[in-house]
């Protein structure tokens, strides 16, 4: 959504912090959608009330808590150096108010609404007795498929990633939002295709445990983004101070996690619709 606003000209990189502020505000407001989706998926996998509560708590606190913890530790290091670039305590308090006062209630409201909805209809009945899974070849192991699957989404964003990182770390303005939108569309299609393809190969090998494979097949691209950030640090940046190095890798870890979560979520939802489609076409007498 932030990219759409930037594409239409409402947000400009020349206005310092406008893109980041918009992303944080929209992430806060999207809590209702996140909670709703989490509850609906929990019901698909037969989650009871206790599991629904655990899922909602993880949705509300896990990812924001991890990122805020990294950000707070990095900010403490900057404070220790008495740098003017440290974030003020009032700004941190405002972020916490947005998180606990707006995002968390919206997540719980969305989860409550989603849990009250009817369970998604699955095309076939799930067998209560798990089938024996044949021994899989080495190239069909979860680790192998994940590492292979993450290459293609990363390859689709590789060139654009160089310009994005240059705009962040070399203080260059970035205005190519139209081209970035096209790259994003290609990445989403690539994530969906690679997850569906690898899941189909897994199902034909009589391995029905497709859910985490569909996520990790495209979500592992975040690992390649972080590895690329290491190469970029060694080849393009001249940073020697330990706090600056810590900030670079801390923020790149956050960016890599976000990219992995986005690509993994796209792969999972695409595969979920694909699996429902192929099993829905089975004629059961």
TrEMBL record:
Its membrane topology: Multi-pass membrane protein
Organism whose genome encodes this protein: Durusdinium trenchii
Compartments where found: Membrane
Protein name: Transmembrane 9 superfamily member
Coiled coil stretches, renumbered: none
Pfam families (UniProt xref): EMP70
Family to which this protein belongs: Belongs to the nonaspanin (TM9SF) (TC 9.A.2) family.
Keywords recorded for this protein, A-Z: Membrane, Signal, Transmembrane, Transmembrane helix
Organism lineage: Eukaryota, Sar, Alveolata, Dinophyceae, Suessiales
PANTHER family: TRANSMEMBRANE 9 SUPERFAMILY MEMBER 2, TRANSMEMBRANE 9 SUPERFAMILY PROTEIN
Signal peptide per UniProt: none
Membrane-spanning intervals of the chain: 57-79, 86-112, 143-163, 175-198, 210-233, 245-269
């Amino acid at each position: 959504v932030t990219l759409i606003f930037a594409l239409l000209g409402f947000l400009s990189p020349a206005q310092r912090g406008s893109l980041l502020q918009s992303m944080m505000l929209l992430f806060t407001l999207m809590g209702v959608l996140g909670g709703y989706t989490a509850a609906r998926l929990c019901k698909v996998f037969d989650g009871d009330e206790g599991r629904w509560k655990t899922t909602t708590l993880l949705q509300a606190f896990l990812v924001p808590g991890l990122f805020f913890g990294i950000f707070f530790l990095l900010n403490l290091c900057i404070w220790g150096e008495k740098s003017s670039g440290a974030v003020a305590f009032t700004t941190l308090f405002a972020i916490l108010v947005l998180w606990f006062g707006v995002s968390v209630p919206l997540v719980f409201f969305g989860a409550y609404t989603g849990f009250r909805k009817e369970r998604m209809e699955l095309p076939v009945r799930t067998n209560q007795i798990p089938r024996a899974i044949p021994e899989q070849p080495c190239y069909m192991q979860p680790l192998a498929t994940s590492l292979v699957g993450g290459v293609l989404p990363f390859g689709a964003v590789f060139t654009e990633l160089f310009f994005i990182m240059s705009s962040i770390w070399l203080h260059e303005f970035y205005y190519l939002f139209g081209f970035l939108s096209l790259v994003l569309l290609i990445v989403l299609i690539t994530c969906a295709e690679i997850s569906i393809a690898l899941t189909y190969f897994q199902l034909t090998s009589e391995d029905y445990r497709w859910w985490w494979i569909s996520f990790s097949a495209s979500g592992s691209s975040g690992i390649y983004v972080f590895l690329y950030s290491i190469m970029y640090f060694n080849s393009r940046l001249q940073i020697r101070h330990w706090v600056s190095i810590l900030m670079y890798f801390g923020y790149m870890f956050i960016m890599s996690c976000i990219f992995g979560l986005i690509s993994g979520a796209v792969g999972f939802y695409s595969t979920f619709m694909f699996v429902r489609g192929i099993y829905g076409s089975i004629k059961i007498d």
